[in-house]
Amino acid sequence: MSTSRRVFIFGSTGSIGKKALEVIDNFHEDIEVFGISAYSRIDCLVAQAIKYRVKVVIVPSTQSKELFYEKWTSDNPIPKLLVGSQSLVDIAYDNSYDTVIAAIVGIAGLPSALAAARAGKRILLANKEVLVVAGDLFMQYVSYYKAELIPIDSEHSAIFQCLYGNANSINFKKIENNVRRILLTASGGPFLEYSTDSLQDITPAKACLHPKWSMGRKISVDSSTMMNKGFEVIETYWLFNIPIRKIEVLVHPQSIIHSMVEYIDGSVIAQLSKPDMGIPISYALGFPERTKNEVGFIDFKDLMKLEFYQPDFVKFPCLSLAFDALKLGQAHCIVLNAANEVAVEAFLNDSIKYTSIPKIIEESINWYEKKTPYLLNNLDDILHLDMVSRSFAYKNLSSIMK
């Protein structure tokens, strides 16, 4: 990299946060980790703060702050400790650093990501919900406040690389006329070969065993239902300013091609690599330059075949629901996300069947269709609709409990 950067990691103890620190540690010595935050895993947070000598740490409560002090074992000066979700928003405006890694899971990551956009930061975005529930508002902020946005989930990093490669500037508004379609690839998850009927007996443990990626429990379930891919369709729409009709999903079990862009001249550019988050994270950290990592390289002699299938919208109705919500509008995407989080939580707690997840989501979308449309002019509007949507979904759970 030509210039050094200072990074704040929102959600440093999750899988993305830990991988980002690992990549920085090994290959980005010119990047300083200015601050970190976590909602739980305080032991891990303390260890990270000590190792990277961070200046600021944000914890969720006074109790976690006291625990942090108890666990501090270093002679190094203790970092500045801030408490609560408002601190995440406030720190986004701090001029002491320039880059945010937005890796907080769920809608909890939305306020700080919006603040980072308004602060004009370089944002390395891993949080799907930012674009799913607030894509319009977030992208307005990115444009108006001249923030720099680089996705770090594998599929959108792949699309980004196919569109921009090693370009030094990014313009998300000038690609539609050159692109015929964007092809989002999906592994198909752990139940690709299962029959529709056999999904009735899926347990949380089975749903969390992804064949290619190591992820948290919630996102693993989303991947198994293909809701995760549905979210990525919504993200693609907002992130790359591309019409819905130009976004397609292809099941690709080998997970070697992470997405493709087909241009109007018939050319198709694809991004291939081993399925490891170290590559998109390293790419985003170094952009526009590429840097080494420990993932390794594809041996094309070992690739016996690369398969592609159309997704089964009957077996995976969550994917269809995501397309429907996107066509209906931003409010429906908020309802989709809220109902999915409620349903997945209930499934992981063994309260509902796996096949009940899409039923709860569909009922929630149908419920909103009968309501007067909500205005979504600001964050408060978005959070209010999210709240009432969750309330409906929770009430709806009782009718389908095991």
From TrEMBL:
Annotated binding of 1-deoxy-D-xylulose 5-phosphate, by residue: K128, S154, E155, S187, H210, S223, N228, K229, E232
Reported function: Catalyzes the NADPH-dependent rearrangement and reduction of 1-deoxy-D-xylulose-5-phosphate (DXP) to 2-C-methyl-D-erythritol 4-phosphate (MEP).
Organism ancestry: Bacteria, Pseudomonadati, Pseudomonadota, Betaproteobacteria, Candidatus Kinetoplastidibacterium
Residue ranges of every copy of the 1-deoxy-D-xylulose 5-phosphate reductoisomerase N-terminal domain listed in the record: 7-135
GO MF annotations in UniProt: 1-deoxy-D-xylulose-5-phosphate reductoisomerase activity; isomerase activity; manganese ion binding; NADPH binding
Binding residues for NADPH: T13, G14, S15, I16, N127, E129, G216
Start and end residues of each 1-deoxy-D-xylulose 5-phosphate reductoisomerase C-terminal domain: 149-240
Catalytic activity of the protein: 2-C-methyl-D-erythritol 4-phosphate + NADP(+) = 1-deoxy-D-xylulose 5-phosphate + NADPH + H(+)
Official protein name in the record: 1-deoxy-D-xylulose 5-phosphate reductoisomerase
Binding positions for Mn(2+) per the UniProt entry: D153, E155, E232
Cofactor list: Mg(2+); Mn(2+)
Domain DXP reductoisomerase C-terminal positions: 272-391
Gene: dxr
Pathway field: Isoprenoid biosynthesis; isopentenyl diphosphate biosynthesis via DXP pathway; isopentenyl diphosphate from 1-deoxy-D-xylulose 5-phosphate: step 1/6
One GO process term, biological-process aspect: isopentenyl diphosphate biosynthetic process, methylerythritol 4-phosphate pathway involved in terpenoid biosynthetic process
A Pfam family recorded for this sequence: DXPR_C
Signal peptide span: none
Record-listed E.C. numbers: 1.1.1.267
Similarity comment: family membership: Belongs to the DXR family.
Organism of derivation: Candidatus Kinetoplastidibacterium galati TCC219
Keyword set, alphabetical order: Isomerase, Isoprene biosynthesis, Magnesium, Manganese, Metal-binding, NADP, Oxidoreductase
EC top class named in words: oxidoreductase
PANTHER family xref list: 1-DEOXY-D-XYLULOSE 5-PHOSPHATE REDUCTOISOMERASE (PTHR30525), 1-DEOXY-D-XYLULOSE 5-PHOSPHATE REDUCTOISOMERASE, CHLOROPLASTIC (PTHR30525:SF0)
